[in-house]
Design a protein that fits this description.
Blueprint (H helix, E strand, L loop, with lengths): L22 H10 L27 H11 L2 H6 L4 E2 L10 E2 L2 E2 L8 E3 L5 E3 L8 H6 L3 H21 L7 E3 L22 H16 L9 E7 L12 E2 L3 H17 L5 E4 L3 E2 L2 E2 L5 H4 L17 H4 L10 H11 L12 H12 L5 H17 L21 H14 L1 E5 L12 E4 L21 H9 L4 E4 L3 E7 L4 E3 L8 E4 L8 E5 L5 E5 L5 E4 L5 E5 L11 E6 L2 E6 L6 H4 L4 E4 L5 E5 L8 E7 L1 H10 L3 E7 L19 H13 L3 E6 L7 H6 L2 E5 L6 H9 L34 H4 L17 E3 L3 E2 L3 E3 L3 E10 L5 E11 L10 E10 L4 E9 L5 E3 L4 E3 L3 E10 L2 E11 L12 E2 L5 E3 L2 E4 L6 E5 L5 E10 L4 E7 L6 E7 L6 E8 L9 E6 L5 E9 L3 E9 L1
Parallel strand pairs: 3-6, 6-7, 7-9, 8-10, 13-14, 13-27, 27-28, 28-29, 32-40
Antiparallel strand pairs: 1-2, 4-5, 10-11, 12-29, 15-18, 15-26, 16-17, 18-19, 20-21, 22-23, 24-25, 30-33, 31-33, 33-36, 34-35, 34-39, 37-38, 39-40, 41-51, 42-45, 43-44, 44-51, 45-50, 46-49, 46-51, 47-48, 47-50
Helix pairs in contact: 2-12, 5-6, 5-13, 6-7, 10-11, 13-19, 14-19, 16-17
């Protein structure tokens, strides 16, 4: 049985479920890391007789090889774990991989010298999606620089907790906005993701690739965009989609030298777990000449023998992980013994050789050298101290970033900016609070929208209400639920409803709510002994235990605990609240019938309060949105993207009371706000943007800043516009702006300004390019308004003709340009023919086809202001040659099949779990006719089946033959089979139709 989750009212997040950075882990690490100097593990000086590896004048490879040669095999094996021990005989300190730094240094908790818990604060920048919405690589690079500097500051204070390998940025593509971790990524577009991640990575590590400020690691390779069963689901990626879309997000930062490694994802890709996927060696290392130190996600290696059951022993699993190109094992918190034992066993049984270990250790040491660890002075960044954290300059940068992240979605009739308002109503559940997310640091201070507007306009000019219901809960026998003033168990005992019996109800959608006790401002939580306690500052933790539902029952309501359901093995079926004879409230009933019914008495209506505040104001600002720990997060996807019903009702009522209503939507993902778009005159969107969120919102509302953010992903009108969350093939399932055929609520790249811009004619320097050529696309942009502003000029292309389905349009370049009123600036964008290549499945390589490409320049993917064309002289893809060995995965279309692992090491097969599925090979050259077909197949289940070869149609097409498939008894045991075909000459579309369970690896036609 899993032990009870940690108390969520603790100032420390419960981290052991995710990464080995808990306070307990840090404390446990102390004996292991005892030799780590307080200054960060840097050697203070080098003697004249120091070994070569301590000589910074030698080339990096020579220093690495010298140190590697001095290590024993046992010492090298010990370095493969996240917590690398000291090696006293060589004067080498301990080293820890991994510090979370997604939008600032996160999980910043440790113990002081006396052992007391302390929470360290850091500069918290906007969430990653907010950084991307700036479309400003220079700004993002400066943010990355600040994060790298603060990483050094924390490291100087306590290297046991804060290592210099930073697990950021996340470059997983946001192809589905329901992903619970949407806020961690940058964009649905690989080009924008590549530009922003490269900027952030360069900022973190500094300008000298040989001397790193800190070491960015890209998360999570590959195709990790769902949380539901994330360790057992397989992302099906046909070759084109894998190359053109998913890999394309990771490659730019690695190729540009802006990443020092990758982290493996939990999921499987085409049936093979990413924790042991050979892509790390076979693909990723081919993107750069520099060594990469790749790491596993927390617990990933153990999943191979656990939930994934991919290998029977940990020795086999860890050997596969190491051979795949993953160098550091993030597993078992600070306890490296299991990893060491497994690797040692793998060595003794021949699963690994010492050279395999050397390869990984060489990559690890290369990183440590580049961080300056073995330099006498600690390298160029060795002198950075704790005083850099939360500096005035970083606070100013955080405000600049938070302002730049805001997107003006709608602004009818000049509603914004608010012109000298006499009285503003600030309304909504997010108007006077700031929320952080799982990967945020602790805020050093907080400026809410209410705070900032009050500071600007004065106390008397701002009227505020959260607009939430205040209720009391009464049992059938008249007892009111009481919350203790000092926090503690709730009881149904009071005969009347005073302040201690009142709770503010916050609606977060999908019927989930939180209850805040009025008496002390703390949230009701699932507590010790299954009791309800008003002890939480905010919803927080791995198991978010502040979530409830009020379920109608028997003329009243029962209270259902709706916290994370990932711990049901311990929690059990009891989810409903019972008031005991002594009044104590416990989560102790299995169904509503056994729960205690309550009458929900509304003491104060949030909607009525909102209407009262809005009615006499010059403008009403409704601040609504999400709570990052509730509305989808790690291990929890969203089921819909609607604004919570209670928040929507508040917005409707306020808009009715005051037509001059502004919606400030503060959340981490696209939201289906069709009603607001139709009825509310002005809408701003921002992410949870850190301590300066309020200042940024006020700056934009009052016109002190002109909004210039742009959406980095499509906002759909409804979740019905989306296929299932596990459908990863964006071409087949028409995902993202590239392929979506409908009309979105807000398109990719959308964002308005307080000024207007006119685009001139689009010009191209070379209307005809060969496949290696490049052209300059230019356009004049004129500010036709009355105030300065920044426009994001976006260049898209569309290939008119192709053998293969092409995107409707695809972003190729962009430029953010500031233009003064009445002035014109010429924007120049580079377009390379090589960037127009796509993956040719018929020949397994990139191809630039001969074609005309539309060049489309505009303010969003749906707001194209000008266009021209470029003719590219490339190749014509010839008819498909099925007479050579053809990988089954290289099909042109498919239905009813999946992609799966051909072996545990390499290769992909087409799997047909049952009959009826098919794969298509379009425009095949049959020449003078194929008389036979050979195939390599496997069939685990008993009995035989067939693969039918058809021409022209999978159901009605002419049958050329049937390939017999015998049982091979094992999914990885393949055999060759042959069949005779009816003669068919010329060119045609060849279908292979699966009549039963089978795996097809390759096939070829024979004369």
């Amino acid at each position: 049985m899993r032990p009870r989750p940690a108390d969520q009212t603790s100032p420390l997040p419960e981290l052991t479920r995710r990464h080995a950075l808990t306070l307990a882990a840090g404390a446990a690490a102390a004996p292991v890391l005892a030799g780590l100097p307080a200054a960060g593990g840097l050697v203070p000086s080098a003697r004249a007789d120091s070994p070569p590896f301590r000589d910074p004048g030698l080339p990096l490879p020579a220093r690495v090889e010298d140190l590697l040669g001095r290590l024993t095999l046992d010492e090298k094996v010990a370095l493969l774990h996240q917590y690398q021990p000291e090696i006293p005989r060589l004067g080498i300190a301990a080293f820890k991989t991994g510090t979370e730094a997604l939008h600032g240094i996160a999980w910043s908790t440790d113990r002081d010298a006396g052992g007391a818990v302390r929470t360290a604060t850091a500069t918290v920048f906007p969430q990653a999606i907010g950084l991307a919405s700036t479309w400003d690589p220079d700004l993002v690079r400066r943010v990355g620089t600040a994060v790298g500097v603060e990483a050094r500051g924390f490291h100087a204070e306590n290297p046991r907790v804060w290592g210099l390998q930073l697990w950021a940025p996340v470059v997983n593509l946001l192809r589905d906005p329901r992903w619970g971790r949407n806020e961690e990524g940058y964009s649905e577009d690989p080009y924008l993701t590549g530009v922003i991640s490269t900027a952030y990575g360069h900022g973190i590590q500094g300008d000298d690739p040989d001397r790193l400020r800190a070491a960015p690691v890209l998360k999570h390779y590959l195709a990790n965009n769902n949380e539901i069963h994330r360790d057992t689901t397989s992302s099906v990626l046909p070759p084109r989609v894998k190359r053109e879309y998913y890999e394309a997000a990771f490659r730019p930062a690695v190729s540009a030298g802006a990443a020092t490694g990758l982290m493996s994802a939990y999921n499987l890709v085409n049936g093979r777990p990413m924790s042991a996927h050979r892509d790390f060696n076979d693909v990723v290392r081919g993107w750069t000449d520099r060594p990469l130190c790749n790491v596993t996600d927390a617990g990933g290696p153990n999943n191979l023998v656990g939930s994934q059951a991919y290998y029977p022993t940990l020795a086999e699993a860890d050997a596969a992980t190491l051979k795949a190109g993953l160098d550091s094992f993030t597993v078992d918190d600070t306890d490296s013994s299991r990893t060491i034992e497994a690797i040692t066993t793998a060595l003794s049984t021949g699963l690994l050789t010492e050279s395999d270990v050397d390869t990984a250790v060489r990559n690890i040491l290369s990183l440590r050298f580049r961080l300056g660890e073995f330099d006498p002075d600690g390298g160029p960044y060795g002198g950075i101290g704790r005083d850099v954290v939360d500096s005035p300059a970083h606070r100013a940068l955080a405000r600049e970033a938070a302002t730049g992240a805001i997107v003006l979605l709608k602004n009818d009739e000049g509603t914004l900016p608010l012109a000298a308002p006499r009285r503003v109503a600030v309304i909504g559940p997010l108007a006077d609070t700031l929320y952080t997310d799982w990967y945020s640091g602790a805020l050093p201070y907080r400026v809410t929208p209410r705070d900032a507007l009050t500071e600007r306009l004065g106390q008397d000019a701002v009227v505020f209400t959260e607009g939430v219901d205040r209720i009391a809960l009464r049992t059938a026998d008249g007892r009111y639920v009481t919350a203790p003033a000092d926090g503690g168990p709730l009881r149904a005992a009071a005969p009347e409803a005073g302040e201690a019996e009142r709770f503010d109800v916050f609606d977060w959608g999908e019927d989930v709510l939180t209850l805040r006790a009025v008496v002390n401002g703390r949230y009701v939580s699932f507590g010790s002994g299954r009791t309800l306690e008003n002890t939480a500052d905010q919803p927080h933790g791995w198991f978010v235990q502040q979530q409830f539902k009020l379920v109608p029952a028997g003329g009243g309501h029962v209270l259902e605990y709706a916290g994370n359901e990932t711990d049901d093995a311990w929690f059990g079926p009891r989810r409903y609240v019972v008031a005991g004879a002594d009044g104590l409230l416990t989560v102790d009933a299995e169904d509503p019938a056994a729960a205690t019914p309550f009458t929900r008495e509304v003491v104060r209506s949030g909607v009525e309060e909102g209407v009262r505040a809005a009615r006499d104001a010059d403008a009403a600002v409704v601040v609504a949105g999400s709570m990052p720990f509730i509305n989808g997060r790690e291990d929890d996807d969203r089921r819909d993207m609607s604004l919570a019903a209670g928040q929507h009702a508040l917005l409707e009522a306020v808009r009715e009371a005051n037509p001059r209503t502004v919606l400030v939507l503060e959340n981490s993902y696209p939201t289906t706000i069709g009603w607001a778009q139709e009825h509310v005159p002005a809408i701003l969107w921002t992410c949870h943007a850190g301590a300066e969120t309020g200042n940024a919102v006020a700056d934009v509302l009052l016109g002190e800043a002109n909004p210039s953010g742009r959406l980095p992903q499509t906002w759909y009108r409804s979740a019905d516009d989306l296929p299932g969350i596990l459908e990863y093939d964006i071409i087949k399932h028409a995902r993202t702006y590239q392929y979506f055929p409908g009309t979105p609520l807000y398109p990719f790249g959308h964002g308005l300004s307080y000024t207007t811009f006119r685009y001139g004619a689009v010009r191209v320097s070379r209307p005809v390019l060969d496949h290696r050529g490049e052209a300059e696309v230019s356009v004049d942009v004129t500010n036709t308004g009355e105030r300065a502003g920044a426009e994001v000029v976006q260049l898209y292309t569309h290939q008119r003709t192709s053998r293969d389905p092409q995107p409707r349009l695809r972003l190729r370049a962009f430029r953010r340009v500031r233009v003064e009123p009445g002035r014109t600036r010429t924007v120049r964008l580079r377009l390379r023919a090589a960037d127009l290549a796509h993956w040719d499945v018929t020949r397994d390589r990139w191809v630039v086809e001969s074609a005309v490409h539309d060049i489309l320049v505009g303010a969003s993917a749906a707001d194209i202001r000008g266009r021209c064309t470029v003719r590219v002289r490339g190749e014509v893809i010839p008819p498909r040659d099925l007479f050579r060995e053809t990988g089954a995965e290289t099909f042109d279309d498919y239905a009813g099949v999946t992609l799966t692992d051909r072996s545990k090491e390499r290769g992909t097969s087409v799997g047909a779990p049952e009959g009826g599925g098919w794969i298509l090979f379009r425009d095949a050259a049959l020449r003078r006719g194929a008389g036979r077909i050979a195939a390599v197949v496997a069939k685990e289940s008993p009995g035989a089946t067939t693969i039918t070869v058809r021409l022209g149609d999978p159901r009605t097409g002419r049958v050329l033959g049937r390939i017999p498939v015998p049982s091979t008894g094992d999914r990885y045991r393949y055999t060759g089979v042959h069949a005779t075909l009816a003669r068919a000459a010329g060119r045609g579309d060849v279908y292979l139709v699966f009549d039963g369970e089978v795996r097809l690896a390759t096939f070829r036609l024979l004369r």
